[in-house]
Amino acid sequence: MVQEPRDHPERNQMKLIAVTGEIGTGKTELLSDLANHFLKTGRTIDGFCAEASGRVPGENYAARYDLRWIASGKSIPFAQRDENRFPPYRFNPAATKAVRAWATALETGPPLDLLILDEFGPVEALGGGHVAIWPQIKTANPEVVVIVTREWLLEIIEKKLDHIFQTRLDAGQPNALQKLIRFCRIKNDNGIFE
Fold this sequence. Notes:
Layout: E1 15-20, H1 27-40, E2 45-55, E3 62-69, E4 75-81, E5 89-91, H2 93-108, E6 114-117, H3 122-125, H4 134-140, E7 144-148, H5 154-161, E8 167-170, H6 176-183
Parallel strand pairs: 1-7, 1-8, 2-6, 6-7
Antiparallel strand pairs: 2-3, 3-4, 4-5
């Protein structure tokens, strides 16, 4: 059975939160901790984290990134470092297809309290990558969306999404997880923030 995409008119406009920080400052770890916190509360949560492997000591890049789906815990190879390309990564077409299928399913799935997207970087600033799934995310209308990006890309990403970040958090600041949890306060079934 095919379900039609739906909006959630009973919800207000989604809250959009940016998590920023330089390479290697723990942005992905922070989002994983946030996801674990909300999974324990029974809230509906989904999204993906780009997990780095093969970091080169003294360099600000990883040799490879895998996407780990928050809801299922499954991973898929996403990007492999390739110095002959710009940006210097070769993206796995199967992962791109999986991300698009996942985003399409969000449109007809149950409403989400929290959606995590790691990361919107230079590719998205140029209009590619995960920007392609933003229309499906807007239709799914999760209550809170947390996106990892770089400080210098914030305004560009906002323009690409046609949506402003209501809150911005540097992943490297003290008590970042507690602050992020507070920013992500979600209404329970009675309309009370948790």
